[in-house]
Design a protein that fits this description.
Layout: H1 7-10, H2 23-32, E1 44-48, H3 56-62, E2 67-72, H4 75-88, E3 93-97, E4 111-116, H5 125-138, E5 139-151, H6 155-167, H7 169-172, H8 179-193, H9 200-213, H10 217-224, E6 231-232, H11 234-242, E7 246-251, H12 263-270, H13 276-287, E8 291-298, H14 308-312, E9 316-318, E10 322-323, E11 336-339, E12 350-353, H15 356-368, E13 373-374, H16 375-388, H17 397-410, E14 415-417, E15 419-422, H18 435-443, E16 446-448, E17 454-456, H19 459-466, H20 474-481, H21 483-495, E18 505-508
Parallel strand pairs: 1-2, 1-4, 2-3, 4-5, 5-6
Antiparallel strand pairs: 5-8, 7-8, 9-13, 9-14, 10-11, 11-12, 15-18, 16-17
Helix pairs in contact: 8-9, 8-10, 15-16, 18-19, 20-21
Amino acid sequence: MYHNRIPYDAIPYIGAIAPNTSPAHMAICLLWHQRSHDQSQQHHFTELGCGDATNLLPLAFYNPASTFTGIDSSQAELGRARLGAECLGLENIQFILKDVRDLGPADLAPSDYVIAHGLYSWVPADAREAILAYCGDSLKPNGLAYISYNAQPGWAIRGLVREALMRDRTVREAPVEEKARRAIALAGRLIEDLPSQDYAHAVLLAEELERVRDGKPFYVFHEYLAEVNEGFWLRDFVEDARRHALDYVCGAQFCRWEGHVPSELRAALAQRDLDYVEQEEAADLLGDRYFRASILCRGDARRSDTTHQEILEEVYIATSLGAVSDPFDLREGVVEQFEGQGIAGKEPPTITIDASITKAAVVLLSAQWPFGLLLDALCAKATEMLTTNGCEVLACVRLQLGNDLCTLFEAGQVDFRLWEPAHQAEILEYPQAHALARFEAEHREALTTPYHLPIPFEPGAMAFVRDLDGSRSREELRQAFGAELVDQTLPILSRWGLLENATPGIKGSAWKH
């Protein structure tokens, strides 16, 4: 076993934020799929396999009224996690050094949320059973579990490449510290040796080999060379969860672009004699899906008859959709294109909208992204925009807007939030980045916002954030870092709630259900 050392102690895994794990996102997923959920903003959150707590520390920082527990079997990873919590002065987080299989009754703190991100596929069968057992035993009546894993059928090609890399003698015989570099070099040679990519198999193989060739050594080691890494069909995962009295709610990505299923495919699958899980699995096959993040609840969790329209009335609505054309035509029936949110390595999708009220609403929301608006305020502002620009306002604008927003939400292009981070946009004369931003500028590759979204910055801007401790005026900062960098970076930090005066609280919706 890697010279008798735990793999994550030998090769540290550099963590990343998992946006879909935020309580706000999981709660809206639950409601959208007609499950009841406690909308309190005070909760207990447990992360299994938390590693260095890259994902957990921001949640604890932005939610001081809640409590958090991180569990991991790597002493080195938890050492970094504890150091991070100490640097941030967090008193609402604790860490437990244990293998998930060794967790006992004393470790089963009742949890509103249990997260296992990047863990399930990478542990043996008995550990997977322990993960599901922990969720079943520790979740509160309306609690949620988030479990991510490599998914079939898309994982099949990755599994093939993984097996080929592990079988290679130069990789197999290399010291643990050199295995990833040998695998990366091998992937480069295999790409050069590939025959014509006119064949589908060669195209798929080349894409996966390029991922290895261009990957960072720590990622290649843990994704391709780990002792255990398996992919699962959705139905098999759901059946395993049910044995632990857990019900499948939905994919955490269903309203994110990475989980988008084209409407025509959904319509076609709906015509077949398939239940919800079978439809999802068929979409995985046709879409060659290789990764899933599933949200589970207790089998006895209450169901809700709340409609999508009722949910829409109570949430904050936000989008970054940007209009493509200039000039822009607001008139009813004129099709306008908007560039949506994409995923890494792929072109962002193009969305077409022809309803004047929806076009106006999207333009307004895009201008104030990432801030959201309640439906009443949004509809009023959009109606005023149409009137100001001499456009006809139809009698059914509110219904039209609601229907279009629901469609855009399910297509991953509009955010619905049950509560909205509240922060001021003012930039003080002596600006100061808050503690988390300065910590992440020192130790991470991106800064985490109150929306649990990572925002990458160039190295120069990260150095500026590290030094933004409130001791220097804006003019002094311009002299030290350059006026262009300071004047461009400060408004971004302010807008995203990364300044010291920018995170006083959270604005809740009027949700009563």
